[in-house]
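Case study.
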Amino acid sequence: MARTLCRIFKGCQSICSLPLMKTRLHPSASVLLRTVCVRRMLTLPFRFSPKAQDFSLPNSSWGAEMRQLYEHYNSQCEEEMKGEEKQDWAWKRVPSYNRTLKHATGGVYLSKIYQSKARFFTRNIKEPGAAFEYVLFVSKDEQKCVCIFQAGHLLEGPQGSLILKNHATAFFRRVQEEKYWIRYVHGGAIATMIDTVTVTHASVLTLLIMTANLNINYRRPIPLGSTVLIDSSLNKTEGRKVLISCKVTSTDGSKLHTEATALFVVSRLLGG
Ligand SMILES: CCCCCCCC/C=C\CCCCCCCC(=O)SCCNC(=O)CCNC(=O)[C@H](O)C(C)(C)COP(=O)(O)OP(=O)(O)OC[C@H]1O[C@@H](n2cnc3c(N)ncnc32)[C@H](O)[C@@H]1OP(=O)(O)O
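After joint prediction, the assembly is written out as follows.
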């Protein structure tokens, strides 16, 4: 018992010594310190063990569209990193792990307590491409975040028909044929991705936040297996509140699938 408590204490000490934890907001938390945030983001990968698997890297399940978009944004990151001035990047890919606590330096003691069957919700399916396949990029000025999301078969929601209304007769004749049905992504899965993207965006701006409100309008269903873009933009910050809006569109931007606003509240620990 005493040894366990000692371990917990040491674990807390080492976690609190992370650069992340050293960052403090002004008590009012109304001013978001851009320079601090940029420095934090640039040092992000070093807080994690090199053994951790980064799930935001391409894998065999990625379709052509997903790869193409990844190359597009990733090349913008690389271009900026080629130069001597490493801080002058336009976009940065956000690494993604399935066990944040385990792989965060110093987090080992905490993860032992939870004996770590715990997995990050969007990264808890082993089979690549089966569920949430995504990669996030944040922009240099921290006002924008973009996510390329490929929705896997385990995210099945409602079913719909490929047949247009004016072809209804043909549709009813062939209603038995499976090929006339299409599966769409579950609304809860879409909400999860919106929460993930907007919370990541808000995390770039400040620390220790919670989603307080998520308001979603589903405009057009997302076909299962398809790739979409999730764009988030900062609306405003007000005291401890960070308001972000988000759109889910087709990859060419022509179809609006979902739009949302999210409110995050900074923890009282930081916000006073
Ligand atoms: C290179 C990149 C680097 C970044 C890398 C980062 C990676 C990150 C990636 C991955 C990690 C992400 C992990 C995923 C997590 C996903 C997010 C979630 O799922 S969070 C779980 C669901 N949310 C909850 O369980 C909250 C439960 N609610 C609460 O705990 C409290 O209600 C809380 C904290 C939200 C607020 O409580 P109070 O006591 O601190 O604050 P009060 O005084 O109530 O509110 C403060 C202000 O906010 C307004 N407010 C609060 N709730 C509101 C609401 N629902 N609607 C509108 N306004 C609200 C209030 O009216 C008040 O406004 P006035 O200051 O008076 O102007």
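Observations recorded in class. The chain has nine helices and nine strands. The radius of gyration is 21 Å. We will return to this complex in the next lecture.
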